[in-house]
Amino acid sequence: MDLLDNLALGFSTALGFQNVLYCFVGVLLGTLIGVLPGLGPVATIAMLLPITFGLEPVSAVIMLAGIYYGAQYGGSTTAILINLPGESSSVVTTLDGHQMAKQGRAGAALVTAAVGSFFAGSVAIIVLALFAPPLARFALEFGPPEYFALMVLGLIASVALASGAIIKALAMVVLGLLLGLIGRDLNTALPRMTFDLMAMIDGLQFVAIAMGVFGLGEIIRNLDSEQLSRGTVAKVGRLMLTREEARAIVKPILRGTVLGSILGILPGGGALLASFGAYTVEKKVSATPERFGKGAIEGVAAPESANNAGAQSSFIPMLTLGIPPNPVMALLAGALILHGIQPGPNVISEQPTLFWGLIASMWIGNLMLLILNLPLVGMWVRLASTPYHLLFPVIVVFCCIGVLSVNNATFDVLVMIGAGVIGYILLKLDCEPAPLLLGFILGPMLEEYLRRTLLISRGDPSVFFTRPLSATLLAFAVLLLVLMVLPSIRSRTNEALKE
Fold it and tell me: Domain segments of the chain: what residues?
C-alpha cells in the first residue's frame, strides 16, 4: 500500500504542468545532443547547470535526468546511421547497427533500438520503484576487492566483443589502460607519463579519445574509401520489423533488460558495462555467433536495452548511497547539493516528493521518447543520406565543439586529432577499438580499487580470493577467458595434427 501511495505522490508531482514541460525539454535536448556527433550529456548538463539554479529542485533534477536517458536514445541513432556513438554506452551498437544500415536495414535497427530502449527503461523504472532499498543494501556489500573483480570481468568481456584476433583485442585493452593512467598518481599526486606537459596533468579526456577514435577515425576511413564517399548509408530500407525480426529481438531485449538493471546499480558498472555485457551474452548464446559484427539484429536489441535499463537503475547508488556511478550522476549529485539536498540514504525519507517524482517522470519521459523518436526516424535517415562531402565537415565541427565544451582546452582538440589518426591506423590493422575505449574508462578505477584493496589487506593479494563475491567475479572472468581461448587452441591443435 505504501508503494501505491508513493507512486501516487510521484505522479501527482511529475504530472504538474511545470514538471511535464521540463521533462519534455530534457528528453528533447537529450535526444538532440545524442544525435549530434561530438555532443554528449556530460557537456550538456555541465553547461545547463547554471540555468537550473532558479528552478525548483524537483524540476531541475527531472530535466537533467531527461537529458541523460534521452541521450541514450539519441546516441544509438548516430551509432547506427553514421557509425559515431553519441554516448559511450552506444559504442557497442555501432558493431551491428551500422552494418545493418550499410545493408539497407537502418530503419529496422532504429526501430529495434527505440522499442528495446522503451521496454528496458520502463522495466528498470519498476525495478527502481520496487527494489531500491534492497538493491542499495546489496551494493553496500561491494568493497574495493569486489569492484576490482568487477572491473577485471568487464575488461575480459570487452575482449569477447572483438571481431578479430584475441591477441589484438588484449593489446587494445592494455593500450586503453595505459592511456587511462596518464596524469596524477593516486597516492602521491605526482605526474606520470605526462612528458612534462601541464595540459596532461589531469589525464586525457574521455570525450577527446572517444570522438577521435570513433569519429575522426571513421571519417578518415570513409574519405579513404571511394565507395563510401557518397554517404555512409546507401539504402535505408523499411521502417518496420518483419515477423522474423520481431521474434528474434524478444529474448535479447529481455536478457539485456535484466543485465542492465543489475549492473546499472553498481558504481563503476552502469550503462557502459551493461551494453558490453549484454552484447557478449548474446554472442555466446547465439547458435550463429559469426553473424555478430555483420548486421545481427540481436546485436542492436541487447545492448540498447541494457544501456537504457542501466541508465535508469544507475540513479539508485546516487540517490540512496550518495555514490555517483558515472560522470552524469556526479553532475546530478552536484546539482542536488547546490539545491541544498545531500544525496544519500536519507533522500527517500527526507525528500519523498523529489525521489518518487523523479521515478514517475522517468516513465513519462520514456513514453515521450518513444512517441518522439519513431516519427523522427525519417529525419535522421535523411541526415545520414546527406552526401558525405557535406556531412563530414559538420561532424568535425560538432566533434570540436563537444571536446572544447568540456574543459575549454585546445589541447583536447589536438588529443582528438591524434586519437583520430590512431583510430584510422587501428581500423586499417583490423584492430577493434571498442576494447581500447573500455580499458581507458576502467583503467583509473581498476588502479584505484586495486590500491585500496592492497592498503586494506596490507599488501596481501589473497583477499581477492577469500572474499566470496570477488572470488566469484574473478572466477567468471577466468572462465570467460578460457572459453575465448579454447577455440583458438583447438584450431591450432587440429592444424598441427594435419601436418
Answer: 2-498
